């Protein structure tokens, strides 16, 4: 006879108990499914209530089982989450940045991935006026499973064009620096604004894409984005999307509006009738009200920026020299172009994207949206005095 010592008994007993529990758990749902199938499909059969065939270890009728599994598949299809649909827009994030901003950028990417992109996997294009370091490449590509590309900006996109009077530009920076205008004395900031106004969408790494989402180091994303904003833009004929609008410092754009009016006079055929000029001018185009969309966040159609109209406008501004003799920002330039060439239905306010670029945040006020956010709606910028939300709402 088999002798089981007392030290062996305990593990054997435990194993049997687990096996028993496992069998119960494993087969009870099958038993439930089985009986459900038999009741729905053998409704009127006398066997319906009989136990004779009701083995928990096999489906009574494998045809029924197949049908049930197909039904389950179908149910799951109906509940497809937006990111489970593999259709994507031809789009990328575009991040102009310096090697020195790596740590601020990693914080931003972590949030962007967690809130949106780990589900959608859109590629990143990083651009720099200098070569990106290996450290930068390693520590950004490791934050995402999406494709990452690193580009250097061609010299002619980040330097004085030949018609600029360099001494006049130097003098303007000195003067604006003395006046305490923000970035007033910075040349690199001016190259940055000119690049973002007229060149990023022409960079070889961007050429293959149709939509872009601009991101900067240090910005924050506060809410889950459970749908694809790029596809939203594409499917709703949107050309430009924004989340914060505000007033520009007048001292940075003293002649931008006059230059814009000259452009409009030269190209009336480019300005459609029902455009958005009333967002940037409250006296039928006579003066600029300084409103603009904050361009550190943008989701936009690259083909709008590449259009004949936008190109003509940028070239006109560039020739006038205000990127260097003043300090024209890419935000008012993009925004005025949007107002000139697009109508309101082609521009989208992303109210559901909680976002911060110091010192302002857009925090969704809707309680249902709030459930997936981590910002305080009391800090929302939209209805404060520097915001242009009031102008947008009536535009
Ligand atoms: N490569 C590079 N990026 C720059 C330079 N200056 C600004 N940027 C980037 O341009 C964007 C705007 O610059 P930022 O300093 O944030 O300006 P602000 O948002 O207007 O205060 C950010 O993504 C910066 O990383 C520069 O000289 N070189
Ligand atoms: C089951 O019986 C009921 C009433 O006797 C009848 O109305 C129904 O059509 C029958 N269902 C099937 C599947 O035969
Ligand atoms: C996936 O999304 C595309 C674009 O929105 C849509 O046309 C298509 O029907 C969707 N497919 C499924 C299976 O839902
Ligand atoms: C806006 O412009 C688009 C494209 O040009 C056009 O299809 C649409 O009808 C316009 N909408 C309004 C409200 O004018
Ligand atoms: Mg910034």
Automatic annotation (TrEMBL):
Q: Which UniProt keywords apply?
A: Membrane, Transferase, Transmembrane, Transmembrane helix
What the entry lists under Pfam families is as follows: Glyco_transf_15
The regions listed as transmembrane in this protein's record are 12-33
| List of catalytic residues | 298 (nucleophile)
- BP terms from Gene Ontology: cell wall mannoprotein biosynthetic process; protein N-linked glycosylation; protein O-linked glycosylation
Name the family the entry cites.
Belongs to the glycosyltransferase 15 family.
Q: What is this protein called?
A: Nucleotide-diphospho-sugar transferase
């Amino acid at each position: 006879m088999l002798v089981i010592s007392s030290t062996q008994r305990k593990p054997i007993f435990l194993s049997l108990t687990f096996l028993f529990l496992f069998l119960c758990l494993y087969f009870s749902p099958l038993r439930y499914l089985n009986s459900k199938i038999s009741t729905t499909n053998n409704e009127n059969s006398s066997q319906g209530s009989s136990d004779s065939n009701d083995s928990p270890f096999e489906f009574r009728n494998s045809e029924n089982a197949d049908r049930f599994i197909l039904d389950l598949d179908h149910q799951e299809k109906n509940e497809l989450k937006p990111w489970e649909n593999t259709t994507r827009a031809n789009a990328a994030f575009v991040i102009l940045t310096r090697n020195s901003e790596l740590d601020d950028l990693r914080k931003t990417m972590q949030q962007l991935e967690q809130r949106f992109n780990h589900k959608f996997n859109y590629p990143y294009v990083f651009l720099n006026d200098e070569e990106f370091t290996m450290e930068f490449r390693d520590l950004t590509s490791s934050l995402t499973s999406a494709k990452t590309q690193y580009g250097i900006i061609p010299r002619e996109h980040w330097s004085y064009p030949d018609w600029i009077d360099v001494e006049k530009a130097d003098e303007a920076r000195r003067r604006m620096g003395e006046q305490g205008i923000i970035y007033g004395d910075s040349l690199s900031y001016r190259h940055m604004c000119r690049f973002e106004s007229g060149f990023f969408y022409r960079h070889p790494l961007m050429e293959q894409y149709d939509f872009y989402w601009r991101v900067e180091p240090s910005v924050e994303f506060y809410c889950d984005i459970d749908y694809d904003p790029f596809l939203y833009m594409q499917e709703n004929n949107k050309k430009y999307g924004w989340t914060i609008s505000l007033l520009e410092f007048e001292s940075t754009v003293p002649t931008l509006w006059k230059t814009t009016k000259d452009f409009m006079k030269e190209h009336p055929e480019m300005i459609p009738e029902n455009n958005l000029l009333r967002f940037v001018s409250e006296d039928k185009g006579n003066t600029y009200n300084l409103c603009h969309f904050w361009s550190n966040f943008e989701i936009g159609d690259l083909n709008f920026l590449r259009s004949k109209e936008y190109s003509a406008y940028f070239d006109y501004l560039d020739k006038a020299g205000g990127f260097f003799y003043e300090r024209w920002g890419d935000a008012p330039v993009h925004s005025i172009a949007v107002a000139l060439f697009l109508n309101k239905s082609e521009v989208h306010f992303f109210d559901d994207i909680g976002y911060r670029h110091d010192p302002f945040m857009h925090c969704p006020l809707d309680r249902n949206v709030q459930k997936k956010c981590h910002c305080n709606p009391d800090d929302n910028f939209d209805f404060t005095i520097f915001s242009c939300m009031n102008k947008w709402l009536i535009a």
